[in-house]
Amino acid sequence: MDENLYKLNLDYLIVAQSLIFSGSEQKAMFCLGLTTEAVSLLRKMPLAQLKSLARSDCLTFVPRFNPHKWSKFLTVEKDEDPNALDARTIDLLMLLSAHPPES
């Protein structure tokens, strides 16, 4: 099993469960793409079960990439400051989290 995949899955599941426990089910559904069924299941899962689920050999979630929103991020200028990548990453994440997934 890929350790990076495990960490990515576990982080996602912990964030989802944290939002649910804080009473932000709607935010978890909107920002993370959870269904009402997933919210119900995650509410009941202990950490050991989350870790077991995270160990699967595939993502436990579906990335919601939109190529139109990624175009600015993927365009790299030759003379660009390396620190600009961090700022662009934050901008992209803010942009992606502000819009629902597109079909």
In short:
With 103 residues, the chain is mostly helical. The protein folds into 2 domains: 3-54, Flagellar transcriptional activator FlhD (Flagellar transcriptional activator fold, Orthogonal Bundle), CATH 1.10.4000.10; 67-97, no CATH class. The protein is built from 6 helices and no strands.
Summary keywords:
2 domains, 0% strand, globular, FlhD_sf, Transcriptional regulator, transcription, activator
Molecular structure report:
One of its GO terms (biological process) is positive regulation of DNA-templated transcription. One of its GO terms (molecular function) is DNA binding. Keywords: Activator, Bacterial flagellum biogenesis, Cytoplasm, Disulfide bond, DNA-binding, Transcription, Transcription regulation. This is Transcriptional regulator. It comes from Methylomonas koyamae. The protein is globular. It has helices spanning 3-21, 25-32, 36-44, 47-54, 67-74, 84-97. It folds into 2 domains: 3-54, Flagellar transcriptional activator FlhD (Flagellar transcriptional activator fold), CATH 1.10.4000; 67-97, no CATH class. Helix 1 (3-21) packs antiparallel against helix 2 (25-32). The model has no long low-confidence stretch (mean pLDDT 79). The protein is mostly helical and 103 residues long. The protein contains 6 helices and no strands.
